């Protein structure tokens, strides 16, 4: 009886462990493919690929710097907009709103996460861009144009549009996960804080503190989505290989340049350069993930997860 | 929340109470700002997509460019097949891996898998697409639904794993202890107590993942629509159909699960 039990447990564990191992295999295969495909470009350009701003298919000179810059800046701006708003509304939905309202609104927000990214792109291009071009950007240029960030010409499409569309896209992720995590923290935390004389906001702060690792996880997921978002950004960022200080100017991200040019790429070196951009994008996600993990570890004082506490 | 009573008990409106009100008002504001653009997008989707919505849109094949009318039957069936294949691949693997990480995930191997899943969530769909091209399309000698399904499954995987782990961890430890105390073996505890308790959360998470993957097939609905008017009309309608399809499926799924979970 005892032996049989151990065997069943072992089998069960092995089956689940196999599923877990498959994840590792999948990523290894992706890395392998990306590395193999970009070999030609790596051999041709070396490290200069990362610092060059050239992008000339005719003379076959390629460099990734404008796209690395575009990806980093658009994602950072998107998070700057989405994180405070997302956490604020998660707090509203989990702590302040009546239970029913919170449940319904977050249900709708989760359903909205189903909107395909290209729809956000279409909306950004046909609705947001004209609005930015005629109203917001002229105002920014007139009133805060002395800051280089808002200098230039109101194109409508460009870095600002991409950042706004990206933030709209990632906000449901932040809201729904943060709300789940907040709801999962023990009610007694808030009760204890209130009993000690904390104000409602301070009691929420205590709950937020307990939920911090989970919320950081939500932000990491959102960042991952923003870094790699392709279709929507391709439609609204303008796709140029110039680096501009102004948020109003067109730019390009690594994902958008691949989406834009992969099917047009004719020569092996051109294709290889695009795959190397994919590889670099992959490497950036590794760095971001690593940094985020260190951050989570540091923020939680070495604790693995909020759920382990509960 | 007992805000008025608390303020009264303090005897005076101090700085902390005012700050508390400001913070809570800011949360209301954040909620409104987040909902606004999403509501705008849905409104535009309905306003521009509904007029061209008809039965023939679902049942007809696309007409050649320039001819009026025509539907998207092929693209809709294609989306369903791809998403179905992807789900078939990703949900068992993802839920299995997530449960493993939550229940047995303490060693070095688990940290590696956890990190890899995080990593995968950051891998852009376009990189996965390039990899699937090299791994499935080239060896099989051509494009196929299988290749698309595999790529979609890979995209769904990290979300399912991460959320499943999170949800399974939320199951109170006392459930496991109670089941173990009743003499159930470890695997039975996991399979028949822990997973059912976390089911609602797991399905919600999987639903989000499937929805995200379905969105990746949206460009299917946009190919071959170069003439501007036609493109505009059919694009909005195609997007509307996709959104309705995905939200419809997920809404039904979620409500069913909630009912089952409450039983």
Automatic annotation (TrEMBL), chain A:
Name by which UniProt lists this protein: Phosphate transport system permease protein
NCBIfam families: phosphate_pstC
Pfam families named in the record: BPD_transp_1
GO molecular function: phosphate transmembrane transporter activity
GO CC entries: plasma membrane
Localisation per UniProt entry: Cell membrane
Organism per entry: Eiseniibacteriota bacterium
Job of this protein: Part of the binding-protein-dependent transport system for phosphate; probably responsible for the translocation of the substrate across the membrane.
InterPro entries: MetI-like, MetI-like_sf, Phosphate_PstC, Phosphate_Transport_Permease
Membrane topology of this protein: Multi-pass membrane protein
Database matches in PANTHER family: PHOSPHATE TRANSPORT SYSTEM PERMEASE PROTEIN PST, PHOSPHATE TRANSPORT SYSTEM PERMEASE PROTEIN PSTC
Biological classification of the source: Bacteria, Candidatus Eiseniibacteriota
Keywords: Cell membrane, Membrane, Phosphate transport, Transmembrane, Transmembrane helix, Transport
Entry's family note: Belongs to the binding-protein-dependent transport system permease family. CysTW subfamily.
Domain ABC transmembrane type-1 span(s) in chain numbering: 68-292
Annotated TM spans: 12-32, 67-94, 101-132, 152-177, 277-299
One of the protein's GO biological processes: phosphate ion transport
Automatic annotation (TrEMBL), chain B:
Gene Ontology terms: cellular component: plasma membrane
Key words of the record: Cell membrane, Membrane, Phosphate transport, Transmembrane, Transmembrane helix, Transport
Pfam families noted in UniProt: BPD_transp_1
Gene Ontology MF annotations: phosphate transmembrane transporter activity
Primary residence: membrane
Keyword Membrane recorded: yes
Superkingdom to which the source organism belongs: Bacteria
SUPFAM superfamilies: MetI-like
Positions of the ABC transmembrane type-1 domain: 76-257
Keyword Cell membrane listed: yes
Transmembrane segments: 21-46, 75-100, 112-136, 142-161, 193-215, 235-257
Cellular compartment(s): Cell membrane
GO biological process, one term: phosphate ion transmembrane transport
Membrane topology: Multi-pass membrane protein
CDD domains in the cross-refs: TM_PBP2 (cd06261)
Family the entry assigns: Belongs to the binding-protein-dependent transport system permease family. CysTW subfamily.
Protein name in UniProt: Phosphate transport system permease protein PstA
Species: Eiseniibacteriota bacterium
